UniProtKB/TrEMBL annotation:
Family: Belongs to the anaerobic coproporphyrinogen-III oxidase family. HemW subfamily.
InterPro entries xrefs: Coproporphyrinogen-III_oxidase (IPR034505), Elp3/MiaA/NifB-like_rSAM (IPR006638), HemN_C (IPR010723), HemW-like (IPR004559), rSAM (IPR007197), rSAM_horseshoe (IPR023404), rSAM_sf (IPR058240)
Name assigned to this protein: Heme chaperone HemW
A Pfam family assignment: Radical_SAM
Function: Probably acts as a heme chaperone, transferring heme to an unknown acceptor. Binds one molecule of heme per monomer, possibly covalently. Binds 1 [4Fe-4S] cluster. The cluster is coordinated with 3 cysteines and an exchangeable S-adenosyl-L-methionine.
Keyword tags: 4Fe-4S, Chaperone, Cytoplasm, Heme, Iron, Iron-sulfur, Metal-binding, S-adenosyl-L-methionine
NCBIfam families: hemN_rel
Principal subcellular localization: cytoplasm
Length: 426
């Protein structure tokens, strides 16, 4: 253990033999944990406030915002202004305009927010109107990520969602009236009783709404959720593994045919509209985290805040008393290596060979390649040379990228990663 100031860069040993100053974060995630109800698949740290409480009408939300601002306000300041800010949850659109404005003003006062920053907020259909969203835009919000999940009311009810299909269309209409071009829709495949025909219909309806970005996630039945007490993966009424795989292929085919770039395993974007904030995670770059359950990656180390409000409030109080210094577990070189692979292979860009070699060394690269060779021969892994395009030789080039093929490599990425982890952890 070492005592490490979260926001002050320190000199640490990197996986190469040299010591360097870690990159200083230019991104911040803020967790807003409140929801009208808990969805049956959700294992996020959330607090349910019911259908009638939001903004200043909820003492619980008012209290939380005050503690969140206290955490930001007591954080040491280091580095350039923020280039991305992301309000996630939960349902951040339950915040009032004034509450969101206070949080952003605090961030700007402590860290600065770049003039061209991407400032995103997750919103649920049925939780905002035109004035509400226009107020958000006035505070600086310029990107909206909306949790649609499905376009069939029966599936939405099956998931415990509070909105219905009509709310989706109303919300998108409001987004258009306010003038937000950069908006994203989230969809979930593999839901209970969901058919391929319903999934195709959801994809078609999402495309027809012309969002700049679409996220398509496969349902994961997480322990402790309502779904985990009812369903077993691959067992009816959940789709079989074969149907789930087909749903993934259908999403790739439908969305790329509609002009969306498949830039990450679960994410598609029009040209120029990739999520800049999420790329920070996938590229394993540092990021500040604020709020209940939020994770920070600063100074080469990660830590996560408590997942309940009371424990989080106590944590903030202790944080203030310690001047932003806490004991943080050391992050090992192997952990950094595995995180880099796990995140980087999710991207269509893949793993940059020269950068990987510089960071982890040629021996690690060869060890990685030995793991990937069977999948390369199977067509699940591609190697692209900067000078030759797609590379078919028996040895890796010194530059270029290692990528998973689309869709099969992405589809079986967990299998590939499990092989890598098993070999590299020996």
């Amino acid at each position: 253990m070492q005592f490490h100031p979260e926001f002050k860069a320190s000199i640490v040993a990197t996986p190469s033999t040299e010591s360097t100053i870690p990159e200083i974060p230019r991104s911040a995630y803020l967790h807003i944990p409140f929801c009208r109800r808990r969805c049956f698949y959700c294992d996020f740290p959330v607090s349910v406030v019911g259908d009638r409480k939001q903004g200043e009408d909820s003492g619980t939300i008012v209290e939380y915002v005050n503690w969140l601002i206290a955490e930001i306000d007591s954080s040491p300041v280091w580095g350039p202004p923020l280039s991305t800010v992301f309000f996630g949850g939960g349902t951040p659109s339950l915040l009032s305009v004034s509450q969101l404005s206070r949080i952003l003003a605090t961030l700007d006062r402590r860290f600065g927010i770049a003039a061209d920053a991407e400032i995103s907020i997750e919103m649920d259909p049925g939780t905002f109107d035109r004035d509400h969203l226009a107020g958000y835009c006035h505070t600086g919000i310029n990107r909206v990520s909306m949790g649609v999940q499905a376009f069939q009311d029966e599936l939405l009810a099956q998931c415990g969602r509070s909105h219905r299909t009509s709310d989706i269309f109303t919300a998108v209409e409001v987004i258009g009236e306010v003038g937000i071009e950069n908006f994203s829709l989230d969809l979930i495949s593999g839901l209970p009783q969901q058919t391929l025909e319903q999934w195709q219909d959801s994809l078609n309806q999402a495309v027809a709404l012309n969002p700049a970005h679409i996220s398509s996630y496969d349902l994961i039945v997480e322990p402790g959720t309502a779904f985990s007490r009812t369903y077993q993966p691959g067992v009816s009424p959940l789709p079989t593994d074969e149907i789930s795989a087909q749903m993934y292929r259908v999403a790739v085919e439908t969305l790329t045919a509609a002009g969306y770039e498949h830039y990450e395993v679960s994410n598609y974007a029009r040209s120029g509209y990739q999520c800049r904030h999420n790329r920070v995670y996938w590229e394993n770059r540092p990021c500040y985290g604020f709020g209940m359950g939020a994770a920070s990656y600063v100074g080469g180390q990660r830590f996560t805040r408590p997942r309940t409000r009371r424990e989080y409030y106590a944590w903030v109080q202790e944080w203030q008393g310690n001047g932003g210094v806490f004991p943080i577990p050391e992050t090992s070189e192997d952990e950094v290596l595995l995180e880099t692979l796990m995140l980087g292979l999710r991207l269509a860009d893949g793993i940059d060979i020269a950068r990987f070699t510089q960071q982890f060394g040629g021996d690690r690269l060869q060890q990685l390649w030995q793991c990937l060779l069977p999948y390369y021969r199977q067509g699940w892994v591609n190697v692209h040379s900067l000078s030759e395009g797609r590379y078919f030789g028996p040895n890796l080039p010194s530059s270029g990228a290692i990528r998973l093929s689309d869709p099969e490599g992405f589809l079986f990425s967990n299998t590939i990663l499990a092989t890598i982890f098993e070999a590299l952890e020996k």
